[in-house]
Structure formats: structure tokens, C-alpha cells
Amino acid sequence: MIDTIRKKHIKFIVVTGGVCSSIGKGVLVASIGVLLKKAGYSVAVVKWDPYLNVDPGTMSPLVHGEVFVTQDGAETDLDLGHYERLIGINVGRNSSVSSGQIYQEVLTAEREGKFLGKCIQLVPHVVNATKQRLLNFALDQEADFVLLEIGGTVGDIEGEVFLEAVRQLRIELGKPHLMHCHLSYVPLLSWTGEVKTKPTQHSVSELKKAGLVPDALFLRADCDLDGHVVDKVSMMCGIDKNFIFRVLTYDPLYRLFIELDQQQVCKRIQEYFGYTLQRTADLSDWKAFIAAIDKSTAPLRIGLIAKYVGSNDPYISVIDAIRSAGYAVGYKATVVVIEAEKLEQGGYDADTPTWKELKRLDGIVMPGGFDNRGIEGKIFAARWAREHNIPYFGLCLGLQVMLIEYARSVLQLKDANSTEFDDSIKYPVVNLTSQQQRVTHKGGTMRLGSFPCVIQKDTKAYQAYKQEMVWERHRHRYELNNDYRQAFEQAGVCFSGVYKDRDLIEIAELNDHTFMLGVQFHPEFQSSPLQIHPLFKAFMKAAIAGNRPSPIRGG
Q: Is 158 part of the annotated catalytic residue set?
């Protein structure tokens, strides 16, 4: 297999992170991918995560951030969303590998007797299984470059197996086939006014203990780093200064692609791998998008009615989709995060700071989520949007909330709800499908991945998509109860999108509202800065309609 990899000239770029977590390894991997793809190379990306969960699907968004769903139905880390949105590729379940998956594979094989009585150990068995995953992935993808992100921070005990796999691979593949890039944080001490390279030196030292010396070093900092800093890091870490790059904080982050290109990252990568005819990256579309961002100064306040309020980006794909859609129509969308539970305090239309914030919004996005915490606050927000003709876009749970509110207020089914929140209710307008009622395991058992949706003509959904069939990604167990479908339709709800094979509602919209539309899927997973999802763009246009013509392109 190694010989086949060499013959196919597949190149591997491994990215590790040092000093601390959350420094942007996924963004760096995506940035390298952008440069290589814009230079005309094919790119595939995979992430190794050291946690023992099989996937992040059962983790709280407040602990691990957003769960990104791939086209083929894998629940993955949010970094895979960065790869898709920024590089412009579709990743699948094989792009997401956890320690839990590897250990599960090895232990299952042991129970089946495939190791012929051997003592099963981290080295070689777990390491070999890890390497095999990567090599199989590379051969399946047949890309020029395979980018590998190793999650966590160098020095974490749970990541040592992955580092050992990389150490062995670089020996087996040889230098022309594997490049190791290390992203390390360089802090600025405010009380001295100095940046400190010692954490980076320690981080590289940890790698050396694992038998690895990075081929390139990316210095993550909030301020510019002068040549003296680069020279010092080069000397103390033993890395060629031509392969030391600065990764600063940019707003928007897309400027990082331009900056890394100016530092000749793409050129150095090709140089490392021995390419004699080097290509340049054509970033004209990203430069045009950044120019549009710079021109988009008119404000737009979009509310995100959230139940996960904290760190780790529980709604990162939604927020990116909102902002990108705003830029596409010439506005700078400010995402106002409103905690759903706080809307419950004092009841509907209470005189509270949270309600005052809600009333200042130009549009409302109701994202997905699970369990009943904050649900009544979400229902209040949906009611406000309906009664005051505020553009409303419901995503997954956001569709269900919209219909529950409509059932209570318009159909007069006062205790209408979802059986997710109350399984003894009289009017279960949202409930489990028959397939889900038989499910006992939690991990990977929801309706996951892409499903077809047939769009009804002469609807807001059709006006946005301009086509009769689309594929959208799902992650949920509960659906609209079809027993109430006719009652909704008679009361003014249009079910404009349907999954025909199982007669499930995918899109609902209100006939007499400027824009109140909910979807059972997650369109944010297929929206990117250069390819705005049609429904996000339609929602944004509704939010600026009337007395707010676009200052750039007329909306």
C-alpha cells in the first residue's frame, strides 16, 4: 500500500497544534486547502480526534461545539464545516476519525479472533489501525494532497498514539511524501509589552520527544511578529526560517488566505515536495468577497434565539451563513444572540432587557437543538415574529417551534407540543416517526445526512431555490405529525417542501406573512461564503425589504 501511495504521488500534510487548544488548527488546515485548491491541486481532508467518543454526536454543544453533519450522515467535529465552507469540497464520514472508532475497531477484531492469540497493544496494533485508516482514505480519495488535522494539543496523553502513527508514516513514506506543520501560540504579555516564544519552544520540544521535528511552523499571534522573533524561533526549534509563517487574527478571517499567500506558503509547500513547476493560487474570488465585506456597512440586526449560550461555537455554521448572506445582499449582519430561557422570564412581551433586544431585531433565526430547556421562550419569539410580521427562519427545531406556536395560537390547540418535551400531551403536533420509536441507542441513530426534498411551485421556497428538487442535510428524530397536516393547511400554512418517499414535511411557510419559513433540515451546513444557501439569502432579502434598499447591489 505504501508503494501504491508513492506511485500515485499522493502528498500528506499533517497539522498539529501546540500550547493550548482552540487556536485555529481547523482554520489553518482550511487555509492551506484553499491555497492548494486555488493553485489547481485536488485536496482531501481528514481529522483525527483523540477523544474516546465514537463521534461528537452525543456531546453537548457547550462542551464540544457544533456537531457538523456530512452529506453521507456522519456526525462530526465543527472543523469539518470549516473544510467544506472554505475549501469548497464535500467531506464524508471517513474524514472524521476518533480514538473511539480506532479502539472499537481493534477490540472488535480481537473479539472475532483476527489477531490469532496475540497480546493487543497500542503499538503496534492501535497505531497500525490508525495508519491504515489514513492510507485507505488517501487511496479512496486519489487527491494530490491529503491534509490531516490532529485534534487536541501536543502533550495531551490521549494524542500520543496519533503522533506515533505520524512518526512511523513519515519514515515509511519518506520526506517527499509527508510534511508536518505545527501551529503554536505566541502570547503577548501586556505587562511587559513583549511576545514570548518560550511556549512554542516547549511545544516543539514535546514533539521532539515523540520523535517528530516539524517541517514548518505557523506562529499564532494577536500582534505582528518581527524578524527577530522568527530568527529566535528558528534557532531554538531547529526549523528553517523560510518555513516559519505568521498566523495573525483577521476580521474577517478570509484575509488569512491572502496573508498566507503573500508569505509564500503555497510556494514553500510545493518547494518542500519537490515540485519543479510551481503553481500560484488564484484568490480573485476571495478578494472580491472581502471587497464586498468592506463595502457592506449598512447595519442589519439578526436575532439568534439560542439555548446553548457559552463558548465553543455551538452555532458556528448558522452564524457564518447569516453573515455571509448579509454580505451577499450588501449589508453587515450583526448576530444578536438572545437566550431563549430569558425570554420566558416575566411571560410573553415582558418589560425586560431581553424582550427589548428582541423587539429591535430586523429578523429572527431559530436554530436547532434538543430537550425542552428554553422551548417556551423560543415559542414566544416565534409568536412575536408572526404577530409583528418580522422575517423568521426556523432551522430543524425552529420549524417545529413555529408549528407548535401556530397550533396553539391559530388552531386553538392550547397545549399543543412535541412529544420530545411532553409525551403525555393531548395535541402532539410534533412526534417521533415510527422508525425512531424502535430506536434504543443514541449515537448515530437520528435521521442523518442528505435527503431529497420536492419543492412546490409558487411558494417562497421555490422562489429561493428556483428548482423542484433539492437535497438537504438532516439531524433529528422528531417530525411534524401528519395527523394535523390538513388542519394547518386550512389555517394558512403552506407545506412547500416534502420528502415524498415517507411523506414527511420538510418546509413550511405562512401564506400571509412577509417571510415566516421553517425547514426540517439544516441548510447552514451547505452554505458557504462563496456559495450562499438560497434560503439564507431569501431570508436576508426579506429582512432588508421595504425601506432598506441594498447600498451595493439593490438587494
A: no
**Can you name the residues that pair with 507 across neighbouring β-strands?**
497, 519
CA angle, 512 as apex, 506 and 516 as ends, to 5°? Answer: 45
Q: How far apart are CA 258 and CA 264, in angstroms?
A: 10
Closest CA to 164 of 214, 193, 114, 128: 128
Question: pLDDT tens across 372-420, in order?
Answer: 999 999 999 999 999 999 999 999 999 999 999 999 999 999 999 999 9
**388 in catalytic set:** no
CB of 508 closer than 8 Å to CB of 399: yes
The bridge status of strand 417-418 relative to strand 392-395 is: unpaired
- Tracing cell 477490540 back to the chain, one arrives at 107
What region, left, alpha or beta, does residue 154 occupy, with left being phi > 0 and alpha being psi -120 to 50 degrees? beta
Three-state DSSP class for 355?
Answer: helix
| Structure confidence by residue, pLDDT tens digits, 471-485 | 999 999 999 999 999
Q: Which amino acid does the sequence have at 509?
A: E
Give me the sign of the Cα torsion angle 466, 469, 473, 475.
positive
d(CA 299, CA 525): 25
Answering whether pTM is above 0.90, one says yes
Residue with cell 439578526: 302
Residue with cell 485548491: 37
C-alpha pair distances (Å), 432 with each of 321, 329, 368, 438, 474: 29, 38, 16, 10, 15
What is the 3-state secondary structure of 122-151? HHHHHHHHHHHHHHHHHHHHCCCEEEEEEC
Report yes or no: 484 and 533 within 8 Å, Cβ to Cβ.
Answer: no
Q: Is 9 a catalytic residue?
A: no
Would you state the cell numbers that stand for residue 88, as one nine-digit string? 469548497
Of 237, 266, 396, 494, which one is the catalytic site residue?
Answer: 396
The dihedral of CA 306, 307, 309, 311: what is its sign?
negative
